[in-house]
């Protein structure tokens, strides 16, 4: 579920569906009628019950076997009844799979992998490329009508070689002391390092 929430942050959020007849275009209907509710299991609920039942869901440890201590079965039964109640709420949903979110996809600027995410309308959020060995970050937001834009979060570094006018782009995680990189144009190799200047050498704008 954590991986799913990375793609769709609303994947575990319940919701109600209302409909209404518009009297004119682009103006919300004055009378809205409740169609039903889509109940979902959210991550906190799943985690709460999983953590409580983990000891009986897995193979007993050597320490547990040697202690000869029996689980608290009445307590476990009560927990299972809570799980059943939570699941029954989901099964009793009057509508299913409500989905009005925007979906967008793009190729990662750095590794070329396909990135596909969902956002709420009007939302702006940071997303990450999930491809192995890629740490690219993007701002994803609604752009225009039913469209989304992926804006790379990157730092522009001009090549310091005289005569080379190339600009190299790095995502935040790639800029680290000791990290090697090559210019995309002249192929000269560099290393990121910490720089400093004497205070007296700094020119004040004042």
Tell me the radius of gyration: 27 Å
Measured between the Cα atoms of the first and last residue, the distance is: 54 Å
Secondary-structure content class: alpha+beta
Helical proportion, percent range:
10-25%
The residue ranges in which pLDDT falls below 50 over 5 or more consecutive positions are none
Strand content: 25-35%
What is the makeup of the main sheet?
A: 3 strands, antiparallel
Quantity of strands, as a count: 11
Order of helices and strands: HEEHHHEEEEEEEEE
Please tell me the overall pLDDT: 86
Q: Give the overall shape, derived from the CA principal axes.
A: flat
**Helix count, DSSP H or I runs of 4 or more residues:** 4
The strands making up the biggest β-sheet line up spatially as 5-6-7
Summarize, please.
This protein is 22% helix and 26% strand. By secondary structure, the chain is an alpha+beta fold.
Report on the structure:
The N and C termini lie far apart (54 Å). The protein is 22% helix and 26% strand. With 206 residues, it is of the alpha+beta class. Helix 2 (43-57) packs antiparallel against helix 4. The strands form five sheets. Strands 5-6-7 form a three-stranded antiparallel beta sheet, with no helix packed on it. It has helices at 2-7, 43-57, 62-67, 73-91; strands spanning 15-19, 33-38, 102-107, 114-119, 124-128, 137-142, 148-152, 155-158, 167-170, 180-182, 189-191. The relative contact order is 0.10.
